[in-house]
Automatic annotation (TrEMBL):
GO MF annotations, alphabetized: C-X3-C chemokine binding; collagen binding involved in cell-matrix adhesion; fibronectin binding; integrin binding; laminin binding; protein kinase binding
Keyword Transmembrane in record: yes
Signal sequence, start to end: none
Gene3D superfamilies reported in the protein's UniProt record: 4.10.1240.30, Laminin
Domain Integrin beta subunit tail: 73-152
Cellular component aspect of the GO annotation: cell surface; focal adhesion; integrin complex; synapse
Organism: Chloroceryle aenea (American pygmy kingfisher)
GO-annotated biological processes: cell adhesion mediated by integrin; cell migration; cell-cell adhesion; integrin-mediated signaling pathway
Keyword annotations of the record: Disulfide bond, EGF-like domain, Glycoprotein, Membrane, Repeat, Signal, Transmembrane, Transmembrane helix
Gene expressing this chain: Itgb1_1
Keyword Transcription annotated: no
The protein, known as: ITB1 protein
Lineage, uppermost ranks: Eukaryota, Metazoa, Chordata, Craniata, Vertebrata
Cited Pfam families: EGF_2, Integrin_B_tail
Length: 152
């Protein structure tokens, strides 16, 4: 009974908060809680402690990641600007607000990761506070870890 119940006459009697023939399905919805306080960001159902996203555009542990939605670039540009170039609207709050991704600097745009890798990837071109273009990619792996590559 995977340690979550007692076997009686070859049938698992599950402890509270567990279900399934082997008590291997948790009824705890805490792992499905999105940052906005909704279960699976309102875009899926919590099954055995894991989100099953009903909207195929959304993925991740709480259905919060959308690689193809407009705005992935705009949403992260202020944090990338302060982390990479130490400027922009979030310069003062950078260390509190913008440590949620791993950042790698690359020399030129052709050194950025290219489509075809296993993780969904957004290529971004945004303007900084000095009205200059900067280029970066944003991707999230299957563990929900965000990764940014930015052109120096």
């Amino acid at each position: 009974c995977t340690g979550n119940g007692i076997c009686k006459c070859r049938v698992c009697e599950c402890f509270p908060n567990f279900t399934g023939s082997a008590c291997d399905c948790s009824l705890d919805t805490t792992p499905c809680m999105a940052s906005n306080g909704q279960i699976c960001n309102g875009r899926g159902t919590c099954e055995c402690g894991t989100c099953n996203c009903t909207d195929p555009k959304f993925q991740g542990p709480a259905c919060e990641t959308c690689q193809t939605c407009l705005g992935v670039c705009a949403e992260h540009k202020d944090c990338i600007q302060c982390r990479a170039f130490d400027k922009g609207e979030k310069k003062e709050t950078c260390s509190q607000e913008c440590m949620y991704f791993n950042m790698t600097r690359v020399e030129s745009r052709d050194k950025l990761p290219q489509p075809g890798q296993p993780d969904p990837l957004s290529h971004c071109k945004e303007k900084d506070v000095d009205d200059c273009w900067f280029y970066f990619t944003y991707s999230v792996n299957s563990n929900g870890e965000a990764s940014v590559h930015v052109v120096e």
